[in-house]
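Re-run with default settings, no changes from the original entry. Doing this only to confirm the output is reproducible before filing.
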Amino acid sequence: MSARLGTPETSIGTGRRQGASDGRIRVVVVGATGYAGAELVRILARHPAVELVGLAGRGRSAEPVEAVHPHLAATRLTLDEAVPEADAVFLALPHGVAVDRVPAIVEAGATVIDLGADFRLRDPADYPRWYRFEHARPDLLAGAVYGLPELHRAELLALAGKDVRIVGSPGCYATASILALAPLARAGLLGDVVVDAKSGVSGAGRDTKPEYMFGEVNESVRAYGIGGHRHVAEVEQEVGLAAGGAANPGAKGIDFLPHLVPMTRGILAAAHVRPTRPTSQAELDALFASAYAEEPFVSVVAVPPATKHVTGSNEARIHVSYDPRTARILVLSVLDNLVKGAAGQAVQSFNLVHGLAETAGLEQLPLVP
């Protein structure tokens, strides 16, 4: 399948969810040259309800995708700079770039799934603080849905009936952390909260920087984002919403420390929580079992999980334990930062918005070794 693309301004199209001639949903990936973009192509190329009609990359002109991503040669797609007519557009762009492109896309009637930060935070005032830009379209921001299906499935389903359909897909660290903390927030158990997280190098993107070179990363672990990593804003926002009316003094002022570790994929977030009241292992087991029993991509496991248990899949695995000696709760959350932490989760939200089976195109089992 080959996709030749038009111009961004004129060929996004004005038809609303017309679909391909065979009934599939026409999809474009913008920013297809990066890691998240490549993962989107890998998933969507085999999605039973999708026709990939275009891959957009800056400065590209009818370039075979295998020139950038050799592993995607079998798709026979090409990269170009423009965006053709589509029913849904996935944006895998740097923070602050998507907001300028989204108005034209939604005006054309297409769904937007933004993998960047531009539609994640509900309050426009948070963008200068955490991302160092003023949000140009707070009117569109107000109607965007945070694309974490486990917390916002109903809102994602409701987007199907709206003229403007924007999904702000969560950050990878945020996804792991929110899934770990949300059941505790609902129960009002969040006293003091510290999240210690580790990520593989692919989470930093594909841009060449000295600190991500093999000689710098190999046999080394480095903490960064000290004093306030930008994903903290999402975590506090969503944990606060999950809490409802429950009092959780630790839901604001979450202490989050990320680390870069010498592996390609994966995130492990360890949430250390001092509860607001006495609890027990039995209560915690019941809370997490109830929260995720019906979730297709979240498993609560009895044994502490490793990142390798979920590599290449859209699955998150969570383990909760209570230490009566210290009276602390420990929640371990693991996921693949490029799948459940990025492209897979974006496709999961896309499925819901378009009335498809939530698991469509996402049933790949983890890869080992």
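The longest helix spans residues 172-186. Residues 1-17 have pLDDT under 50 and may be disordered.
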